[in-house]
Specification:
Layout (H helix, E strand, L loop, with lengths): L3 E5 L4 H12 L3 E6 L2 H13 L4 E5 L5 H15 L4 E4 L14 H29 L1 E7 L12 H23 L3 E9 L2 E2 L9 H14 L1 E2 H13 L8 E4 L7
Parallel strand pairs: 1-2, 1-4, 2-3, 4-5, 5-6, 6-9, 7-8
The structure holds NADPH dihydro-nicotinamide-adenine-dinucleotide phosphate.
Length: 245
């Protein structure tokens, strides 16, 4: 069945790969991110492949912009079947570096962006009595390490928020599903958000030997969507097989 699917952070990486795969699967896509040129290019590729797509420049730090993305979806396609809160950044630095601006950005994008997405999609899904919210967390939402405290904190938060959402959905009428996808190292543009050169270099080395392509996560998202409507994967934790933590 063709679904209407919204993806935040659709201009690169996991969001871009998911847009391509889900459109090829016959779903209608609405894409949000900040870089218009990239969004436009992703949308053009979807259209060239015969898919239906809309996009809007959206900064998930702004509740009004996230709400506008939901409204665009309703105006264009009349419903919201799946909302994927994927937009994220991964700043890494020890607390002693005092990178307060990065902490603020990570919290605003990775946590508040997710809550704004839930706020934009849930009322429509409740009215439809069906819908699925997919939140992209991380294996770093399961463990933390020096330099990753704030990023991990945001991803632990995504899992906590999703748990509460899942329980609330279970108490509501209809087929409402919440799924967390927690990947390990995936080769995307994410390392661009690591400002510290030394830490970035270590990550680049690790990703060069361990990283898996973004379409692995896209495939998992597709499988989570394809499950029977009365069943949900509550969380999928997935890693390259050589990744230890
Ligand atoms: P990318 O950097 O390739 O993609 C991140 C996306 O988020 C981009 O499309 C970017 O678009 C968007 N984004 C960033 N800030 C904002 C904002 N303020 N408003 C709207 N969109 C924003 O990395 P990934 O594909 O890897 O990241 C996707 C998700 O996967 C993130 O949540 C990340 O934490 C998670 N993840 C990634 C892992 C990995 O190893 N790659 C591992 C575990 C989790 P734009 O700049 O145009 O706004």
């Amino acid at each position: 069945m063709s679904k209407v699917i919204v993806i935040t952070g659709a201009s690169s990486g996991i969001g871009e790969a998911s847009a391509a795969l889900l459109a090829a699967d016959g779903h209608k896509l609405v894409l949000g991110a900040r870089r218009q040129d990239k969004l436009q290019a992703v949308a053009a590729r979807v259209e060239e492949a015969g898919g239906q797509v809309a996009y809007a420049v959206t900064d998930v730090r702004q509740n009004a912009e996230v709400a506008a993305l939901a409204q665009l979806t309703l105006d264009r396609f009349g419903r919201i079947d799946v909302w994927i809160n994927n937009a994220g950044i991964m700043p890494q630095a020890p607390f002693m570096a005092g990178t307060v601006d990065e902490w603020d950005s990570a919290i605003d994008i990775n946590i508040k962006g997710v809550i704004y997405g839930i706020n934009a999609a849930l009322p429509q899904m409740v009215a439809q009595k069906s819908g699925q919210i997919i939140n992209v967390a991380s294996v770093e939402g399961h463990h933390s390490h020096v330099g990753g405290g704030v990023y991990s904190g945001t991803k632990y938060a995504v899992r906590a928020i999703s748990d509460s959402l899942r329980e609330e959905m279970a108490q509501l009428e209809g087929h409402l599903r919440c799924t967390v996808i927690s990947p390990g190292a995936v080769t995307t543009e994410l390392l661009e958000s690591v400002a510290d050169d030394g830490i970035k270099e270590r990550y680049e080395d690790f990703y060069a030997t361990h990283g898996i392509p973004a379409d692995r996560v896209a495939t998992t998202i597709k499988q989570a969507i394809d499950l029977p409507e009365d069943t949900a994967w509550n969380e999928v934790v997935m890693r390259p097989i050589k990744q230890v933590l």
